[in-house]
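Lab meeting prep.
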Amino acid sequence: MGDNQLQTNKQEHDSPRPRQVAPGRKLAQTRKFKEKRDFKSDENPEEKARRHKEQELKPLYKELLYTVTHKMGKPSSAEVFTDAQLHQYIREAFTMTESEHEDLMEKVQNTEAPVYCLMATVKEAKGILGKDVSGFSDPYCLLTILEDEQESQTRRSRAKPSKSVVKDAASHDKIYQTDIKKQTLNPIWNQTFILEFEDISASFHLEMWDKDEEVSLSQKLEEIKTNLNSLRRMIKEAKKEKGTDDFLGSVVLKLQDLHSTEDNWYNLEPRTETYPDRGQCHLKLKFIHKARDGTLSAGRSAYINYCGILQQFVQAFISKQKSSAPWKGELSGEAQTLLELYATQNDLSPFLQDLAKWVAYSKLYQSLEVDSSVLFQQITSIEYHWHQQELPYQQKQELEDSLHGFLQYGLCLVAKYRDIFLPVPNATPKLHTLLRILVQICKTQAFQKLNPANVDLHDEIIHAVQRGTQEWFSMKKGLHQPMTKELSEIGSALSRLIVEVQEDIKHNKDVWNRVFVSAVQLDVFTVIYQKFDSLLAKEVRETLSLMEGQMEQPLANSLFPVYLSLQAIHKDKAFLQKRGLLELTNFHEHFRDALPYWLNQAFSTTQDRVERAVQVDQLQPLQSGAVPVKHSSSAVDLVACVQPICQLWEQLAWPDPEEAFMLMVKLTEDVCKIVVNYCHILKDRVRILSENSDHGSAINMLCVVVNDLEHLRSVLTRLPTQLNWTGLRDRTQSVIGESQFNNTLHSQLQQAQSILGREIRSALDTLGKQLNTDIETHVRSMSTRRRIPSKSTEDAATPLMHYLEQELHYMNENLVQENFNSLLTPLWNNSVKILYQVATHHPQQEGLMVFCQRLLYTLQCLEQCFHAEGNGLPLNALHSEDYKTLKAHLSHNAMSCQQLIEKFFERKIWEQKVFSGEKYGAVTLLTSYRRSDQRLRVEVLNAVNLLPMDSNGLSDPFVQLTLEPNHVFPLVEPRCTQIKSCDLNPLFDESFEFLISLEQCQVQGACLMVTVLDHDTLRMDDFEGEAFLSLKAIPGVAGGEADGLSLQPDATPAQIRLPLMHPKPNDDGILSLLESRRGERAAQAFVKKRRQREKQSRESLRP
C-alpha cells in the first residue's frame, strides 16, 4: 500500500531551524546578502552572457525539453499546443539557435525516461449506499492502474460476471487501499497515493467497498429490536458468504482523457442496475514524474528551476510587448502550458508556485514596468497557502528575504512618490496598490512569523515621506540656485523654490493625501506640511537676513511673489488634522521693510496706466443700442486699474490689526489721489479734443465726461465694500476707536466724492447754460401785441417744445440717468425763472392776456415734458414755490375781465367762510331756491351788533341785496329793506324773490352780496359791512343738474348768520390786474366801485 503522507521536499527534514531576527532591526537598514560569483566583476559582457547561457539557461532549456518529451495529461487551458509549437516557443524565449536546440534536444532524448506516476488523492465521498443492518456502511477504497489487455484477460478468465475488478486483475503490491471509515455514508479520507504506470492508454480504477466483519448473534438480535427495517438486510446477509465485503461502486478513468491536474467529483458507477444511484467520490488526480534524470540541471531543485523558467518567460513576454503599458501578469498560452506541465510533473505545490511567482515578480518590479496588482494578488495567495502547508527551510529564508527586501524597496518608492507616481489619474492607483501591498505584507502571518521584530509600517512610511520630502526640497533648492549674487536674483530664486513647494503642497492635499489615507490611514498632507513649514521658515530667515538695510524697489518687487506664496501656504494650515505651533505663523514680520515699496509700486503703476488710458480715449460712448454704455473707455480702464489696488489688500491680508488699519488708510488715500488726478487729466483731454470740433461734438464729449465722472463716483461708493471696511472694523475695534476709524477713512472718501460732485455740477452747468439761453429766446419770441385765436397759442409754443424735446432726448441718450436727472432740476428751475421774468417784464399791457395765456400753456407743456409720465422729475420737485407763484400770476393774467371778477367773488366767498368774529356785526338770513319756478327767496331776518355810525351813537341801518357778478345777472336789480332808525340790532323780517335760472346760480363765483348801510339824508350812506353767500350753498341749488329737476319738491329754507366784513385796501391783486386793463369799461366800473368800498373800510384804520 502507498504512503498517504506526501513529502514535498526531503530537504526540509534535515534543514536547521529558521534563524532569528534581531528585535532591534529597522527596515531602513540595508541588508547584506552574500552572493557567490563564478566570474570576475570586470569580465567581458559577451563572455558574461555566454557563461550565463551555459550555466543558467541551457539547464533550464533541457528541463523544458524533457518536460515536453515526457508530458502526460491534457493542459488545463482551452488552447492545445503541439510539441513543435512548444519547442518553437522555448527556443524563442531562451534565444537559442537552431543548432543549439538540436544539440540540446539530442541530449534530452539520450537521457533516461522518468517513472510515470499518477498522484491520486481520495478526499471524500457523499451519498453512498448503506449496506449494514444499521443503515450505514464501513467504506474503504481500492486504487490501481490497469492496462486494457490486463483488464480484458481478467474478465475472460472469470466463470461468471464479478463485481470485483481491482482485486482480481492487479497484483497485491499495485493495489492501494484507504482507511476504513466506520458507520458513515459521507466518509472523509484525504489520503494521497502515487500509482506508477508505463502506458498512458491504461485506466485508473477506484472501487469502494463496505467492510464486513463477523458479528455475534446477540448483537444482530439487538439491532433487530432497535430497527425492524434492518430485517430485510439481515435476510440478505444470511445468504451471503461469511467475511465478504459489499460492493459500493467504482470509478474508472482513462488516463489519456485526464488533464495534467484534475480535482472533481465523480459518480460511483454500479456493476449492475440494482442501485444505479450510489453517490459520488471526490478525487484529486495529478500526473507526476519520479526518478527524473538528474543530469539535466546539475542537481538543482525543481523549485529553483521553476523560478528561473518563470522569470525567463516573463522577460520574453515583456520584451515582445509593443505598448508601454505595465505588465499585468499575462503570459502566452505556450508559457502557461509549459509552467503547468513542469510544476505538475515535479509535484510543485501551489504554495511553491505562488512563492516562485512572488519572488520573480517582486524582482521584476524593481527593474521593469510591472503592475502593482500582480504583486498584490501573489502576496494574497501566499497568505492563503501559509495556513495550509509548511514551507521548507530554504524557501522560508527566501520568502523572508524577499518580503523584507521588497518592503525596503517599497519604502524607497514611497519616499520618491512625487517623482514616480505623478499626480495624474493613471499613476495614483499604482501608488495606492503599492501601499496596499506593503500593508498586506506586514499583515501576513508569513511576515510576522519570519520577522519577529515589531515593525510599525505607519511610522516607517512617515519616516520615508519625511526623508523623501527633505531630499526633494534639497534637490529643488539646488535646482533654483541664484545665477548671481545680486539680492534681487536671490529673492527671485527663493520665490521659484517656494512656488514649487506650494504646488507640491497642493498636489499632496488634493491628490496624494486621498491615496495615503485610503491605503494606510496616513494624513500625508499634515506630515509634509509640517516638514515644509520648518524647512521654509529656516530658508526665509536665512535669505531675508541678507537683505536687512538694503531694501530697494527692485528687491522689494522680487520679494512680493515670495510673500504671496507663503501666504497661500500658510492658509493651507486650515486643512491640518493636527494643529500645533508652526514656524511660519509670523512670517509677515520679515517683509515689513518691503511693504512701503509694494504700495508705491501699486500706486505708480496704476497712475501710469490711468494716464495712458486717458491719452487714447476719444471720449465716445463705449456702446449704444438696447443696453447702452454711456461712459468712455478710460472710465472702464480706470476701474480695471484701481482693481489691483483692492486686490493688493486681499493678497496682503496683513495679520497685525493696527498695521492693517494704517495700510488701509494708505490704500484709500492712493485710490482717492488717482481719482482726483483722473478728473484733471480728463478735463485737459476734453479741452484738447474740443479745439477743432463743432459745437455738437463738443457737447457730446462733455456728456461723456459727465458720465465718466458719475461712473467714477459709483466706483468710490463701492470702495468700502471692495476693501471690506466692515471686516477691518471688526478686527481693529480693540486698538482703533470707532471715531478715529470713521474720521480717517470716511473723510478721505467724502473729500474725493465732493471733488467729483463739483466737477459734475460744473460740467452740467456748462451744458445747462446753452439750454437756458435758447429757452429764453424761444419764450421771448412768443410776445405779441395782437389778440389772436387760441390756436396760435399752441403754434407759438411749438418751437420751444420741439427744441426741448430734441435736446432732452439727446441728453437722455448721452447722459446716464443720475446725471440726466441732475441736469433736469436746474434746467426746470431756470425755465420757471425765465418764464416769470418774461411774464412780469412785459413792456406793454396790450396783449398781456394773450401772452400770459401762451406762457401758461407753455408752462403746462414744460411740466409734462419734465415729468415725462413719471419717468422724469417727480411732481413735488416740479411744484416749487417759484412755480406756484408763476402759475398763479399767469393764471390771473391769462383770464378775461369777467373771469377775473368771478375769481374775485370766489375768493370773497372763501374769505367769508374763514372769517371769524363779529366785530362789524352780523346779519341773519333765511334762504331757499325753488326750482319749480326758478325763484330765489331771501328773507332778511335781522342784524346785530352793528357799528354806530351817527353822532348820537346809533345808526339808521338798512340791508342791500345784490346778485354778483353783474355780468351773470345783468337783468336783476339790487333790493333794499326798510330803514330802521336809531337801532344797532334792527329786526327786518322782509322777504325778497329773485327770478334767476339754476345755471346762473351754479356759475363760478355766483353769490348774494349782502351790504348793510347807515342811511344819511344829506350825505352818502355810511358803510356798515358786507357779507357774501355762495348761491351754491343755498338749499335747492346744490345737487343734480338743471334738466328734469323741476318736478322735485321745493327745498326747505335754511337760516344762516353771516358776519359782516370790511375789505382790506390795496390787498387784492385781481383788482390791480383789472385796473390795469383800461380799455375794459365794465372792469373799470367794477374796480371803481370796489375801491370806493375800500375807502369806506375800517380795516385801513387798524394799526
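Slide two material, second protein:
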Amino acid sequence: MLNNMETERRNNSKNEDSRMRGFRPSLSAMMFVVAVIWIGVAALYGLLKPISNGCIMTYMYPTYIPISTTENVSSAKYGLYLYHEGWKKIDFTEHLKKLNGIPLLFIPGNGGSYKQARSLAAESDRAYQGGPLERTFYREAHVDMADIQLPNQYANRLDWFAVDLEGEHSAMDGRILEEHTEYVVYAIHRILDQYKESHDARESDGTATTGSLPKSVILIGHSMGGFVARAATIHPRLRKSAVKTILTLSSPHQAPPLALQPSLGDYYESINQEWQKGYEVQTTRTGRYVSGPKLSNVVVVSISGGYNDYQVRSKLESLDGIVPPTHGFMISSTSMKNVWLSMEHQTILWCNQLVVQVSHTLLSLLDSTTGQPFPETQKRLAIFTKMLHSEIPQSFNWKMQPQSSWSTRVPAKDIKDTAVPEVHTLSDCPSSFHWNDDILERDLYIQTTTVTILAMDGRRRWLDIQNLGANGKSHFIFVTNLAPCSGVRVHLWPQKGKSSSDLPAGRGVLEVTSKMVQIPAGPAPRQVEPGSQTEQAPPSAVLHLAPEEMNGFRFLTISVAPRPTISGRPPPATSMAVGQFFNPDEGKIEFTPVSMLQSVHSHKDIFLKEDHPLAFNLSFAVSLGLLPVGFSLKTAGCGIKDSGILDEAGDTGNAKLCKLRCFPPVALAWDPTSGLHVFPNLYSETLLVDSSPALWTSTGTEKTTVLLLLDPHCAYKASIAVSVTTAASRFWLLYFSQIIGFCVAVIFFALMRQAHARPIPSILKAVESNLRIPFPFLPFFLVPILFSLFFSFLSSQPFPPFSSFTIVSLICYLLANGIVILLILVSHLGFYVAAYLHVFIKTRWQLWEGNFGFLFLRWFMNLSSRFLSLKVVRVLRANPLFVPVSAAIILSTFVHPALGLFILLLSHALCCHSSLCNSLTASFRSNARKKESDYRTEDNSLSQQFKPKPGSPSKENSSSYIQTQEDTFHLRHGLLVLHLLATLMFVPSLVSWLQRIGMHQSFPRFLDSFLCICLILHGIYSSESLLNSELPFPRIMGKEVRLNSIYLIAGFYSYLSGMALAPYKALYAMGAVGIIAFALSILQAWTGATRFGRRRHWHRH
C-alpha cells in the first residue's frame, strides 16, 4: 500500500514538473529572447536619434482653388484643387478662366494631404518668374542627344493641381489603393476638360487666346502616390496619351513597404506586370505584329530620399525590371546635382535644395516653340538626366575605370600665330572670360609633386608631367573651391613656349578646365574681420587626369585669376586649390569583414603622415548599408615643425592652426543601388549608404568604395568603428519583411513537430527542439536557401553572393526564432496566470457556496440554467462551433478580415484556458486525495474543495486525463501563435479601415476574405484526432504524407516568401493548410476513420 502511494505521488510530481517544463524556456531560448530585445532596443535608439539633414525650409503664400466635380463620380468623398501662389485675394472663377499653363497633378502618399504640393508649386512659380539657374562650367552628365540645350527663358508656367485623398492610409490596404487610382484617372480627365472649359470661356468673352490646349498631364507622386500615378497610367479607362511624364518622390515601386496584406501585394504584382508588358511590342499568339509598346512614350523618374528615409528604402524605389533604362531611372537625393543631401520621408517635399532643382527640371521640359512638353521621349529623358545627374564617377578604381567616367578627351586644336593669353579660344570656357597679359602675372615653376594655392594671386603654375609623374605617380588629381573658367583654368602643353609658333606643327595647347566635376562643398568659413585669416574653405570641384589623357603632353599649367585686395592687404586665405601627382596603389586601404567586425569593440586606427596621397581609395568588404562605420578624423600635424607653436597651443590650438592651412576632408561613397553619398567637412561622421545587400535579388559585388580627399600637408589620425546602433536599425529596416516570413516558417516547423511527436509537446519545446544542431536546425535553415538558388538557376537570374546571403539569412532565422519564443512566453505566462486565478476563485466559491450573501447569485444561476434549457440554446450548445465559425466568417466577408481572425483568437484562447484549468483542477484534486490518504485527516478542506462532481471523469486523478488536457492546450496554443501572427499582419489594414468608418466603404477584397476564412477553418477543425486519424493520405516515394509533412512544406514556402520580401505570401500557405485541414475533417466525418489503435499511455522518464 505504501509503495503504491509513493509511486502515485512520484507520478504526480513528474506530471507537475513536465507541465512546468513546458513553460520554462531553455538557456538557448532565453539567449535568443535577450538577443531580440537587445537588438530591438539598439535599433529603436538608432531610429529615434535626431537627424540633421541640412535642408533649408521652403516658404510660400498658398491658396487652394477647388475644382468642381461631376455628380456621377464614384469616389465623391475625394476632391481636386488648383494651387495659386500669392498673398493677394483672387476671384476663383476668373482665375480658372485664365488657365493656360502646363498641368501637373500632385498625388499625396500614405496619410498625406493635397496641401503638401505647396513647396513644389511655390518654387515652380518663382523659377518661372526668375528664369533658369545660373550656368556653371563644371562637367555635366553625359547624354546621348548632343542637341539638348537648356533654355535661357522658360516657355510657360506650371499649373499645379492636387488631389485630396482624405489622408487615407493607402500603404496599408489594397482596396484603398485601387480607389485612389480610379479617382486619379478621373482627376486627369477633369483637369484636361477644365482647360477646354477655360479656353471656351475666354473665346466667348472675346479674350485673345494663344497656344494649344494641353493633351497630357505630368504626374508628381509622393510615397504611395508615385505608385498610384503608375497604376493610373495603365488604367483601362484613361485616355490615350493622357500621361507621358511621371516623377515620383520617395515612392516604393518594387513592393509595398509593409507587404503584409495579400490583396495589397497582389495589386502591386499585377500593376508591375502590366508595366513590364507595356514596354514590349504587342503581338498575337502566333507572333504577328499588332502594335508598338503601349508605354513607349512614357518617361518615369524616381527620386529617393537616401539612407535617412526610414519608411521606404532605395531598393524599393528602384525601377529595375519595371521601366527600361531607355525610359526612366532612379536617382537618390544624395547624388542629385545641387542637392547632395539625404532626407526623411516627408522632408523630401519641402527641402528647398531639392524642390528648387526639381522645379527647374520640370520647367526645362517645355519646348520653347510650342510651350508644351517635348513630345520626344528621349529628349525628356535627356533633360531629366542633364538636370538631375552629376558627373561624379560611379567608381573610384583609378586603373580600371573607363576613361569617360571622369572626363572625355577633347581634341586639341592648333593656335597658329596666337599668343598664349588667347588660348581661351581653344576651350569650352565662354569667350566672355578674357585672360590677357594684365591678368596673369609672373609664372611659378613647381618642383614638388604637390602644388598648393592659398589665394587668388593671378599666377600660373607650371608642372613638368615627365619629371613629377615619374616613379609610378602617373595620375594627377586636383581639388579646389575656385569656379572653373572664372577662377581657375587648367591646360596641357606639349612643351613650354610663349606662343604657338614655338610649338611643333600640328600640336597645340589643350584646356581641360571643363573636365572639372562639381562636388558638394560644406559651409564656407566666416571671416571675423576684413583681411583676417580664416579657416580653409572646403573643396567644391575635383579633376582627375589619367595617364592616357596626359599622353603626348609635357607640361600642365594651373592658372588662377586675381582678386582685388582689401585695404591694401592680401586677400584672406579662403581660396583654395591643391593638386598632386600620385600613385593610386599608395592610397588603397582595404577593410576585411573580420576587421570590420573587430572594430565593434576595438577601434581601428590609421595614421597618415604628412605628404600622404591626396586621394585614398577605401574598400569595405561588407556594404556600409549593412555595417555603417563611425569615421573619426583628427589632425596630428600640418607642416609646422620644430617651431614650438604647436607645443604651446596644445591639441585644441593644434586643430585650429591646422584648419588655417589644410582644407576640410571630404568623403565620397558609391553604392550601386542608391548611387553617390557625399560627406563634406568630414571630421566625425557615420559613413552610411542606402544599400540592400545579401538579398535573394542581390547581384554583383556588395563592397562599398569610399574616396577620401585629404590635404597632403596635414597628418591625420583616422579611427574607424562599426556603429552598433546604426547597424541594428539598418538591419531591422532592411530585413523586417524577411524576418516576418521566417517567423511564420518557424511556427510551421514547430507545428510539424507537434504533429509528429507523441505526446504532443508544448509549442515552446517544439521550437527549442528545432534549434538543435546539427539536426534538425541545418535542414530547416539550409534547404530553403538551396531551393532559392535552384529557382534562380531555372529562371536564369544571377545568383546572390552566397556567403553574405547565407549569413544574413541565418541571422534573420535566429531572430525569427527569438521573436516567436518571446510571443510564446508572453502568451504562455498570460494563460497560466489566468488559469491559476480561475482555479483559485473557483475553489473559494465552493467554500463560500453556503454563505447567505451568495443566495442572490445562486438565484441568478438558477435563472441562467432555465435560459440554457431553451431549445435554441440547447441546439447551440450541442454545436459549439457554429456560433464562432459563423460570426468569424461573416465578419471576414462583409466587414474586415482582421475582425474574423479576432474571433478565431478568442476561440483559441478560451479553449486553451479551459484545457489548462481542467489540467490544474485535476492535478489539485489528485494531490488533495493523496494528502487525505497520507494524513487520514477528517473534514479536510482540500478534499471538500475538489470533491468529484457527478458527470466528471471517473479517472480524473489519473495521468491520462491530465495528459489529454495538456495535449489539447499545447495544440491550441500552437495554432493560437500562428493565427496571432496572421492577425498582426492584417492589423495595418484594420487601422486604415477604422479611419474610414462613417465614409463610403466597400466590401473587403475577395482574396483577403477567402484566406481568412481558410485560416478560420484551420483553427476550428484542427484537432488531435485529425493528427492521428486513419485517412487515405497520398504517398510520395513510398512514404505516407501526413499533416506534419504538410506543415513542413508550408514552412519552406513561408521561408522562401520571406527571402523574396513578400511575407504576405505566407498567408497563402496558411490558407492552403486550412483548406486541407477542413477537407480532411469532412473526410474523417464521412468515412468514420478511427485513430491508429487505442491511445497509448505516454510515460515520461
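Talking points for slide two:
The chain is about 40% helix and 15% strand.
Residues 802-847 form the longest helix (46 residues).
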